[in-house]
Amino acid sequence: MQSSPEERRMRRQDAVLAAAVTVITLGVVLAMVRLIAPDPAVGLSSAQSWALGVLSCAQAPFLALRRTWPVATLVAVAVCQVALVAVAPEVMSHGIALLVAAYTIGAHAPVRAAFAVIVPAVLLQAATAAIAAWGLPGTSAIVVSQAGSAALAYGGAALVGSYVASRRRERELERMSARAQIAAQRERAETAVAAERGRIARELHDVAAHHLSGMIVQAAAVGRLIGRDDEAARSGAAWIRSQGKATLENLRQVVGLLRDDAGVDGNAPVPGLEALPVLVAEARRTGTDVVLEETGEPRQLPPIADISCYRIAQQALTNVRQHAPGATARVRLAYGPRDVALEVVNGPAAASPAVLAAGGGSGLIGMRERAGLIGADLAAGPAGDGGWRVHLRLPVPDDGGRARQDVGGRAEQTHAGRADQTHGEQADRQHGEETGDRR
């Protein structure tokens, strides 16, 4: 069976490690033979010194298989270690290879498999020490020292490996959880956008079907009346023209502004930026400390842009009330020669925000959808003082900065010729009580 690239890379790494440990062990053995072995206090013969060196170096090559066969690797290293004890029982020597092999079995093998190798290895090393040191002074001390050092070397390295593996698994679970949360958030955002666009499509269909079907029927009637009753034909043509204007206005007002509403007056005018003072006053009545700043020469915006800007300001103030209760807020509306800027900034919350029901998060999505529909740039994020900032910039043509009419005049104009447009306006005006999680 062909191995995967990951397995081949792992084997190359283990082979490099085995070679490095072999070289290091060889250096230590040579230093020991030259410096320690000649010392009469140590009591090692030259043959014992070289045997210790050869057996210590023989342990290292097995590390090339440490992650492929961790149990077999530790068994092979333990056999070499028992041979070391048999050669010189009075020497407590546990090399780098043994520590690495024990670490590996703790990190990559089940706990039972690790104990099944470590416990017999410690017992076998102690028994070998007892046999090899039989008749020597301090035999019991040698056996106890060998058993204790073996247990510490094997068990300590295995515990470190198990801890590292546990931390590695925890980090992987955290990464998986974070990826799952990001995917869920993305799915919720896509679902909210899809639902919004579905409502837009349904509303546009209703508006078009209601108005255009009547216009088609009337146009057919006008065609039959031409030459027979010119006065009636002119009256029909005038009706078609008025219906066409009403249809265009209605379509502009409902695109991107659709929500489910209840209890809304179908004859109320659709609000725009000129209603910001009223919106701010309503926010103050609900307990939000908010001020309104207007600069520049007011200008008439297209209906869809006017309504969208108002709804974005309304949603931003709703978010302040939900997520930063007790915070001060500022609404700034600036008319420039080539753009209109709307900014809603609030400070940090003075009280704990209310716990919202699950499924929020569509407030900011809705604002971005509105901004995209009118070609505006929307930026929303934390402010420097711990609050929140929503900034909207709408490019507009330089048409001389025509001033807007007063609220009463706009309301009267909005009502004219729209008695049959109630459904489209209701879908647009329901946002007065709209709430949504922005973050």
TrEMBL record:
**In what ranges is there compositional bias, type Basic and acidic residues?**
399-439
Q: Which CDD domains match?
A: HATPase_UhpB-NarQ-NarX-like
According to the record, the residues making up region (Disordered) are: 385-439
Q: Which GO terms describe its molecular function?
A: kinase activity
State which residue ranges cross the membrane.
15-37, 71-101, 113-136, 142-165
Segments forming domain DUF7134: 10-168
Write down the Pfam families for this protein, in alphabetical order.
DUF7134 (PF23539), HisKA_3 (PF07730)
Catalytically driven reaction(s): ATP + protein L-histidine = ADP + protein N-phospho-L-histidine
Signal transduction histidine kinase subgroup 3 dimerisation and phosphoacceptor domain span: 196-261
Write the Enzyme Commission number(s) for this entry. 2.7.13.3
Question: Does this entry carry the keyword Phosphoprotein?
Answer: yes
UniProtKB keywords: ATP-binding, Kinase, Membrane, Nucleotide-binding, Phosphoprotein, Transferase, Transmembrane, Transmembrane helix, Two-component regulatory system
- Quote the Gene3D superfamilies the UniProt record gives: 1.20.5.1930, Histidine kinase-like ATPase, C-terminal domain
PANTHER family linked: NITRATE/NITRITE SENSOR PROTEIN NARX-RELATED, NITRATE_NITRITE SENSOR PROTEIN NARQ
The name under which this protein is listed is: histidine kinase
